[in-house]
Design goal:
single chain; elongated; six-stranded parallel β-sheet; Rossmann fold; alpha/beta
């Protein structure tokens, strides 16, 4: 196909991944060239298929979407990464931007909005969903909020790290935050990778040195 935007879709949920592909594939302006089920596969397929735009989930196994974005953009500076995820906390938005993403939408966006975002990102522009646009200036402003420890972590990851530093195990953290154990495991893996820590014990020491984990600790 010529004159089309080559798109790679990376998401660990097959219903969303395949559903988005089924929406995009009939469009004459877009060609879905690959689908990835995790971040590592996204990096490999991006190198192989050379897409114009990568539609990237954030929370994925093997390699999270933020790190996958960073690696893809480092290898292909011209590729446009459009992050589409359930969450929209400021830490995730900022991490995605720092990694090189050019767009950020929430899952549930209308097809027309997704197509416009893909087109904008492909053209070198930056795009955010309607629910995020009003907050972007605040997120990017250096004085918008006090500096927190480990700014490379999302707010959710910092929240989990605080509980790790307080001595909670994964099951306890999942219960307190009303999240699934799998989500906690994925976040812990992401925390270890971002902090380049060898194990949980090292993370606890560094987090406590930074002032985290000062709440109630289990006996």
């Amino acid at each position: 196909m010529t004159g089309t935007i080559r798109v790679l879709i990376a998401d660990d949920h097959p219903v969303f991944r395949d559903g988005l592909a089924s929406l995009l594939e009939p469009l004459p302006t877009i060609e879905v060239v690959a689908r990835a089920a995790d971040g590592a596969e996204a990096v490999a397929l991006a190198a192989e298929r050379r897409p114009d735009v990568v539609v990237m989930d954030v929370q994925m196994p093997e390699l999270n979407g933020i790190e996958a974005t960073r690696r893809i953009v480092a290898d292909q500076p011209d590729v446009g990464v459009l992050v589409i995820t359930m969450g929209e906390d400021d830490g995730t938005v900022l991490s995605a931007l720092r990694a090189g993403a050019r767009g950020y939408l929430r899952k549930g966006a209308e097809q027309d909005e997704i197509v416009r975002a893909i087109t904008t990102v492909h053209g070198g522009g930056v795009v955010f969903g309607a629910s995020l646009a009003a907050r972007i200036a605040e997120v990017l402003a250096p004085t918008s909020r006090p500096e927190r420890p480990f700014p490379e972590l999302t707010e959710r990851e910092t929240e989990i790290l605080d509980r790790i530093a307080a001595g909670r195990n994964n099951a306890q953290i999942a219960s307190e935050l009303f999240l699934s154990p799998k989500t906690i495991r994925n976040n812990v893996t992401s925390i270890l990778a971002k902090l380049q820590a060898t194990d949980r014990a090292e993370v606890i020491i560094r987090a406590r040195d930074a002032g985290l984990g000062t709440g109630d600790r289990p006996d």
